[in-house]
Amino acid sequence: MSLHRHPDSPLLDHCPETLPAWVYRDAGWYEKERQAIWSREWVYVGRRNDLPQGTMRRIEAAGQSLILCHDRDGRVACFHNTCRHRGAELCSAHEQPLGKLITCKYHNWAYATDGRLVSTAFGTPTEDFRREDHGLFAVHVRDWNGFLYVCLAHDAPEFAPDMGVRSLDNWPMAALVTGHRMEKRLKCNWKIFWENYNECLHCPGVHPELCDMVPIYRQGIMATNEAAGWAPDMPRPASNLKDGAVTWTASGQPCGPVFPHLTAEERANGYNFVTIYPTMFIVAHVDHVRAVRLEPIGPEETLLTAEWFFPPETMAQPGFDPAEVAAFATIVMAQDAEVAEMNQRGLHSDRYERGRLMPQEFDIHRFHQWLRTRMEAAGEVIA
Length: 383
Known about the structure:
Blueprint: H1 27-38, E1 43-47, E2 55-61, E3 64-70, E4 76-80, E5 95-97, E6 101-103, E7 110-112, E8 117-119, E9 138-144, E10 147-151, E11 177-186, H2 190-197, H3 203-206, H4 208-213, H5 264-269, E12 272-276, E13 280-284, E14 289-298, E15 301-310, H6 312-315, H7 322-346, H8 362-377
GO molecular function, one term: dioxygenase activity
Domain Rieske: 43-150
Organism: Albidovulum sediminis
């Protein structure tokens, strides 16, 4: 049976091969991805308003220990967690107060919050020691809508969410506060999670609650232009959600005040996804926002952290429980975790070498191209 496909349809016109099974399991390849991707791309490390001024936090990105600093003047900076004297770590606790200086507890070398070496304490440098050459090793930091990102590369790439840097302008993002957080260790490679995220062929069999909320998902597609026989002049539904629902809560009703500056399209969408490879995706609803962060911690293990953000006035409502709002998406993520881990286990078959993508899995194909491009730039080719 051939697939009728309009030229403007995103559907693939062929069935390309998947990545080979070994790239999801091999420890050596995992290390190459860490160097070529996770050490060179922007990585999400938390919300600015969850790091109070006058605070230093120890974080990790691409296997490197870093310190994220929010000084008393409101400046955010990031440095490698190592003293320039003899390499001792500067921040041993998860979080600690930050004054005017970052001081090494070992020999009391001290640095300004911008990384400049201020003092060598009891050490007395000779004339061949240039203080300006021994500041902390800085890491690029980006604050986007209150989300903080770091990049370990010497020259940071363009920060480029898939929907553009203006995609969340109509949400009061920087003012939102964290209401709920969930962490889960997934027994799967990080790429498996992104592949699952990028298709809805699994939705009818895996996500009954989600398919009830978003009727088009029952067809195994994510948008009307993915349907067989679609043409640009076909009408779009008035809303992506089922009748009477406006957001992703158990009832479909908003949990508090609706954001006032959304466009009619943003309201009708019911969910607005923004993806920032390889680190996270954001789902902006009419009343709250969710962010899901990925951190690879081994070839076959990934830490998933989901956070829900709300306006302060929503959080202040009597009896408000952000966990109740989070319950709907938590069910969906648990279902995704189960099938992602099932996928990972199946990749250990001696007979399975690689598979084939279906036309509806065009976003997985794009993800594979994104991955290949970055690995090839580092001199690594996936055969």
